[in-house]
């Protein structure tokens, strides 16, 4: 990946973090048997949020970001369900469709969610579909 793409990703990520309004920033960690990723998220409103996810264990040459826009389609007191769409590029180039549930396990920590995510990725370079599953933790900062 060239330096301009990396600079653009960093700029867009920082811009999202500094936007104001009725929104909040979140941080997440997702893990599976073969991959893990860290994320910075930005919730625009009760229904719409985005994540910039970066696969861990990659060096700058294999920097593999995943940018997704998610929609909370069901929110209850103890859980949220969501789906989204996004892109992943560099080491993997494709389209990702995250579908998940965020469970709020502690009544006194409503900003902490344990996420279970079904994560199909269509890899454009080899024209193949990969099905991933992730377990993660997400914390919404106020």
Largest sheet: 9 strands, antiparallel
SSE sequence, one letter per element: HEEEEEEEEE
The best one-word shape is globular
Radius of gyration: 15 Å
Mean pLDDT: 85
Describe this structure in words.
The chain is mainly beta. The chain has one domain (3-140): Porin. The chain is 11% helix and 55% strand. Strands 1, 2, 3, 4, 5, 6, 7, 8 and 9 form a nine-stranded antiparallel beta sheet that branches. The radius of gyration is 15 Å and the shape is globular. The N and C termini lie far apart (34 Å). The model has no long low-confidence stretch (mean pLDDT 85).
Summary keywords:
nine-stranded antiparallel sheet; mainly beta; 11% helix; Porin
Blueprint of the fold:
Blueprint: H1 3-18, E1 24-31, E2 36-43, E3 48-55, E4 65-75, E5 79-88, E6 94-96, E7 99-103, E8 112-123, E9 128-140
Antiparallel strand pairs: 1-2, 1-9, 2-3, 3-4, 4-5, 5-6, 5-7, 6-8, 7-8, 8-9
